[in-house]
Write a structure and sequence with these properties.
Elements (H helix, E strand, L loop, with lengths): L12 E5 L3 H10 L5 E5 L5 H8 L4 E3 L13 E4 L4 H11 L5 E4 L12 E5 L2 E5 L6 H18 L2
Parallel strand pairs: 1-2, 1-4, 2-3, 4-5
Antiparallel strand pairs: 6-7
Length: 151
């Protein structure tokens, strides 16, 4: 079990490797916290493409290469390619950064939480990286409760 921590991402460089569904979900959550998000991927999910065109994210249209993570305060490996995700882990394990490898909690130094937000209240939810379905359901319930409580 891990201790929950809330960190300031404002104006911090966040590097996301991958441009698919997992990256989309995580970027949508991160956008609430004013980080500077750069996505490295040859292709983007349609909704990420909209965020790029609306200047909410930066897109480096290319395959991941070693060195792409070096400026990241937070690095997320969000691909469905184990080799790429493992390469991101190898690059970042010696760096002083927050690292989340979507397909391997053991290679991550933080879990990406479910997030419920209403006004200034932010709630982070995790099932210790073991049950994403449970964490998602709890997040949804807490978000509904926040909406009711904070009307």
């Amino acid at each position: 079990m891990r201790f929950p921590v809330f960190i300031d991402l404002q104006n911090r460089k966040i590097v996301v490797i991958g441009g698919g569904n997992i990256a989309l979900r995580r970027i949508q959550a991160l956008l609430l916290f004013d980080g500077e998000i750069t996505v490295i991927a040859p292709h983007l999910h349609e909704e990420l493409l909209d965020l790029f065109h609306n200047q909410k994210i930066v897109w480096s249209q290319k395959e991941y290469e070693t060195g792409d993570c070096e400026q990241g305060y937070m690095v997320l490996a969000c691909t469905n390619d184990r080799r790429v995700n493992y390469s991101v882990y190898l690059e970042t394990k010696g760096m002083n950064c927050y690292r989340n490898i979507c397909d391997c909690k053991e290679e991550s130094n933080f879990y990406f939480p479910g997030i419920a937000v209403k006004g200034e209240v932010v709630v982070g939810i995790t099932a210790s990286g073991t049950n994403h379905h449970l964490a998602k359901n709890v997040t949804r319930k807490i978000q509904q409760d926040l909406e009711t409580i904070m009307r």
